[in-house]
Design a protein that fits this description.
alpha/beta, five-stranded mixed sheet, globular, binds zinc ion
C-alpha cells in the first residue's frame, strides 16, 4: 500500500498483472486456503461465493494470510445465520487466536500439525513444515484429491531437511510456490527470491517428487522484490515456471 518503488508505480499507472492482492487460493471452488484481508475483493472480482466453501485451512497466522476480524461477517448480526458455516483448520496459534477473538462462537476449530494428514470431504490435506515464522508450526499444504496431488507452498523459505525427507515419498502433479523477494534477496530466512525459488523447484524435479511437465506457478510476489510480471515471465520461463497473478486458474 505504501510502497513507492518502480514496480508499485507501474502497477498503479497501468494496472493489469502487476496489481497484486494478498496471497490465497481456492481449490475446486470449495476448499479455501488462507483468508487474507483482500478476500472480499478477490471473491467479488472472480464472481465467487463463500457459500460454496466447505472448509477454511490456514497456513500460518501472519496478518496477510489470517484476517481474523473479517471472519465476524459470516455470522449474525451481519447475516442471518447463527452457526459458522464450515470448519476452520489451523495450527495451534491459529486456534488459540481464534478462541481469543471469538470466545463465544459456535465454530468448529480443528488443530493441524505438520506431517499429520487430515481428511476434509474428498480431500486429504497434509501440512508440511515451512521454514517461516518459527514461533509457530507454519505450514505448506499438500492437497490430494483421488490420484491428483498439489503442493501449496506460500511463505516457504528454504525447507529444512525433515521437510525434504518427507517430500521424498510424495509425487506432485502441481506446485504453487512463493517467490516473494524477486530480484532483491533480504536477510530474512522465511522467504525465497528468484534464485532460491528456481533451486527449490529444480531439487523437487531431480528427486522425482515433482512430475515431469507438472504445472509450477509462483505466488506471494512482494513489490520490494523489484520484479514486474513481465520480468518474472522472462526470468522464470526458461526454468519451466509460470509467474502467478491475481485470478490465475491452474488445472492439476
Ligand atoms: Zn508469512
Ligand atoms: Zn505472507
Amino acid at each position: 500500500m505504501f510502497c513507492d518503488n518502480e514496480v508499485s508505480r507501474l502497477a498503479r499507472a497501468q494496472g493489469g498483472r502487476d496489481v497484486r492482492s494478498r496471497s490465497a487460493a481456492l481449490v475446486d471452488g470449495q476448499l479455501k486456503l488462507d483468508f487474507p484481508p483482500d478476500t472480499l475483493l478477490q471473491m467479488n472480482r472472480e464472481g465467487l461465493s463463500a457459500h460454496d466453501w466447505i472448509a477454511l485451512v490456514f497456513t500460518h497466522s501472519h496478518d496477510d494470510h489470517f484476517a481474523r476480524s473479517e471472519l465476524q461477517y459470516f455470522l449474525y448480526p451481519f447475516v442471518d445465520q447463527e452457526y459458522f458455516p464450515f470448519p476452520i483448520y489451523g495450527n495451534a496459534t491459529i486456534c488459540e487466536r481464534m478462541r481469543d477473538r471469538f470466545p463465544d462462537w459456535p465454530i468448529e476449530l480443528i488443530e493441524t500439525s505438520s506431517f499429520q494428514p487430515v481428511a476434509i470431504a474428498e480431500y486429504t490435506i497434509t501440512p508440511i513444515k515451512a521454514n517461516h515464522k518459527l514461533d509457530e508450526d507454519s505450514h505448506n499444504l499438500i492437497v490430494q484429491n483421488g490420484s491428483r496431488t498439489l503442493l501449496y507452498a506460500t511463505d516457504t523459505g528454504m525447507w529444512h531437511e525433515e521437510t525434504w525427507a518427507y517430500l521424498q515419498g510424495v509425487r506432485l502433479d502441481g506446485l504453487v510456490v512463493e517467490c516473494t523477494e524477486g530480484f532483491h534477496r533480504t536477510e530474512y530466512y522465511g522467504h525465497l527470491d528468484i534464485a532460491e525459488c528456481v533451486a527449490l523447484v529444480s531439487r523437487l524435479r531431480e528427486m522425482g517428487t515433482l512430475a515431469h511437465g507438472a504445472p509450477v506457478v509462483t505466488t506471494h510476489h512482494a513489490a520490494s522484490g523489484g520484479a514486474t510480471h513481465r520480468q518474472l515471465e522472462e526470468t522464470l520461463a526458461p526454468h519451466g515456471i509460470t509467474p502467478g497473478y491475481d485470478g490465475i486458474e491452474i488445472e492439476v
